[in-house]
């Protein structure tokens, strides 16, 4: 067994792989069907742990680093090429405006097969390019007809495909300044859909990961609070933008399940609406129905609507919506022939080398 140096650990493969190309892997063989490469003979850097570099098997023929049940596109030090292999839509825009830029945390990790950021980027930039589909999505979430143009923000920046630009949302910057001074990694809404002056929707997108829960433990310096009481104190009690959240939240009873990430999205959506002069705000949790079914009984499959609505006052319960990728497909993609490529992507996207969505 040899360890290939960074100079040697490269591949010229630029092909993307989907569920019909793949079979399960225990991490010791290439998941691409009929591949005969002995990947144990090629090890590439994975991560540094306690001062020592850890390595993973690598397939030079298909340009992928092998993990248990999954893989990562890997072209050696050329991270941009590896990332673009996982982006079926608007890949050049991503590399030019977001990749390795300050506005996106871990922008190089979209090369992972299981990256929810990659799925988010592919789906929502294509909905934006279509125009009508993204209006339909806003209408589905809010229950109202939308005629105006919808602006798309990913990870806090405006996606402007026509002008090839990516600019931060100013109200989000103000909320960061107000609520997250001293926080190393600020709250970064995955997706924001904005109808100027009318509607703002924050969407927390999940692919295979779970919605994190608050924990009764101490946070480290520079981290967000861990416990629900400290989260409430920082994001509500000290939040002058929405007057402490007293109109919106009901904390009379200690919540059994406190979804801290979704809670922060609620606070940020309400606060940005106030600062941006926007009439209505919503938060949606976007998950895969297929993966929820596969992981039934595990944290990834738990229903969240009841837990979130428990901390919202009656008039604000409708501001939280649960949504699935499959539902998004049915409502906005399925019947639109101009989105045939996006339809194919959703039908054939893999997760851990298997089907990702209940879409046929």
Description:
The chain is α+β, with helices and mostly antiparallel strands and 360 residues long. It has 2 domains: 19-77, no CATH class; 119-355, no CATH class. 29% of the residues lie in helices and 18% in strands. It has helices at 79-84, 91-97, 116-130, 132-142, 170-179, 228-237, 260-276, 289-294, 305-310, 325-333, 340-348, and strands spanning 43-49, 52-59, 64-67, 70-73, 151-154, 157-160, 165-168, 191-195, 199-205, 280-287, 320-324, 350-351, 354-355. The strands form 3 sheets. It has a 7-stranded mixed beta sheet with strand order 7-6-5-8-9-10-11, with helices on both faces. A 4-stranded antiparallel beta sheet has the order 1-2-3-4, with no helix packed on it. It has a two-stranded antiparallel sheet with strand order 12-13. It is globular.
Task: Describe the structure concisely for a colleague.
The protein has 360 residues and is an alpha+beta fold. Helix content is 29%, strand content 18%.
């Amino acid at each position: 067994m040899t360890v290939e140096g960074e100079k040697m650990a490269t591949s010229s493969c630029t092909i993307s792989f989907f569920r019909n190309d793949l079979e399960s892997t225990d991490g010791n063989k290439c998941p691409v069907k009929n591949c005969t490469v002995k990947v144990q003979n090629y090890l590439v850097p994975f991560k540094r742990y306690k001062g020592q570099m850890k390595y993973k098997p690598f397939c030079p023929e298909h340009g992928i680093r092998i993990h248990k049940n999954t893989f990562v596109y890997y072209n050696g030090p050329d991270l941009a090429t590896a990332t673009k292999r996982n982006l079926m839509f608007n890949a050049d825009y991503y590399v030019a405006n977001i990749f390795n830029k300050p506005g996106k945390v871990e922008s190089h990790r979209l090369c992972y097969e299981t990256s929810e950021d990659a799925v988010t980027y592919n789906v929502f930039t294509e909905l934006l390019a279509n125009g009508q589909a993204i209006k339909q999505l806003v209408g589905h979430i809010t229950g109202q007809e939308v005629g105006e143009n919808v602006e798309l923000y990913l990870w806090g920046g405006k996606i402007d495909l026509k002008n090839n630009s990516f600019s931060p949302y100013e109200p989000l910057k103000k909320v960061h300044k107000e609520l997250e001074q001293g926080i190393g990694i600020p709250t970064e809404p995955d997706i924001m859909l904005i109808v100027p002056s009318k509607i703002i929707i924050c969407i927390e997108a999940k692919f295979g990961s779970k919605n994190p829960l608050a924990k009764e433990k101490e946070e480290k310096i520079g981290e967000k609070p861990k416990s629900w009481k400290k989260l409430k104190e920082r994001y509500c009690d000290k939040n002058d933008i929405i007057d402490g959240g007293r109109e919106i939240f009901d904390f009379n009873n200690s919540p059994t399940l406190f979804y801290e990430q979704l809670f922060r999205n609620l606070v940020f959506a309400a606060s940005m609406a106030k600062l941006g002069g926007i009439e209505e705000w919503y938060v949606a949790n976007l998950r895969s129905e297929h993966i929820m079914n596969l992981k039934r009984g595990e944290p990834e499959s738990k229903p969240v609507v009841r837990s979130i609505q428990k901390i919202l006052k009656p008039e604000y319960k409708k501001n939280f919506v649960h949504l699935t990728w499959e539902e998004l497909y049915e409502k906005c993609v399925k019947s639109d022939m101009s989105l045939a490529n996006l339809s194919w992507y959703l039908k054939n996207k893999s997760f851990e080398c298997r089907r990702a969505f209940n879409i046929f």
